[in-house]
Design a protein that fits this description.
By secondary structure, the chain is α+β, with helices and mostly antiparallel strands. The protein contains eight helices and 20 strands. The protein has a 20-stranded antiparallel sheet that branches.
Length: about 375
Amino acid sequence: MIYNKVPLQLNNPVAFWLNFPDEERVFWVDRQSDRIVVGAKRLATVQDDEDRHNYAYVFYGDTFFEQSKDPKWAGMGHEMIAFTHYYIVENGESFYLHAGEGMKIEDFAVPRIRHNYKETSDDKADWDRLMTAIANGINGGEMTKVVSSREVEFTSETSYNVASILANLVDNNPNCFIFGYEKDRRTFVGASPEILVRHRGSEILSYALAGTASKDGPNAWTKEQLLSDKKNLFEHNIVRDRIVNTMKQITPDITVGETGIMELAHLYHLRTIITAKDSTKSLVEWAKLLHPTPALGGEPREKAMALLETYEAHERGMYAAPFGFMKDMGDGIVVVAIRSALIMDNILYAYAGCGVVADSDADEEYIETNNKMRTILDAL
């Protein structure tokens, strides 16, 4: 597929999104390396990794579990998509790519809306039931860690303004990957700090990101406290070791970095960067191998996933699933779609999760999920 390339500089990448109000569209701002990819109007559903070479950029979105039965997630995920129109900012260049006829792209002013919303669901009983099931599984020796999650409904007096929310997510979340995917009047948005896999030539990179502490408010921690906390280190090391062991099935050439701190707007996380050398598997193949790490599912994976499917009261859909893009040569990046929400008119479903181990306290973990949900709520 031949794409035409035209120089284009916009004040805000959300402006490109606003040029295509009735189309399927995707939004990606990588604030770690200042790359922007915004796509609009589906050109093709890419069938396999070989087929993707025909397109300049291909997006990949999946669902957390194999299937989603909840109609609000219908038709979302499980595919690679090439778009007709792209706005790209990378390597000091800013341009418009289009297959076939181009469009006049307006540099729209991006609205900033203060939403008047309220929480319209109560999930505490569901949470307590889930946490009891997890505690029983861990105490019975079946698993060492399970990642529980919440779905919280927030209703706005007016329709949510997705453009405003995306722009705020970009502004509020340095170090993160801000994403949006809109299909059939439903938009999935978020700001994830967590790389599942990055593919650059023969280098494969993944984050072990687990272990969390609040950096503000009455329960604030210091970085030093988190780096020496036994419970958080135990939880973190489960994730690190699983990623390393998965990589070892493919290649012996693996480097494990030092465990350090990743600092976000309201939270600290323990992070270990793991790299490997491999030329046999594609970005998407690596994503499918690694997903879900114990940072999103649990350990052992199969038992944790079975427990979540049985006891979690909501569908995860695209929450915590692989989401990212690749370029024509196969390089690209896939994050896990956490700190996220699904928006449908004036209803927003916010998602947040936390890793549960033997020492976890159900009420403290519930507070942690509220802290994580601030990523979305601050953007409203």
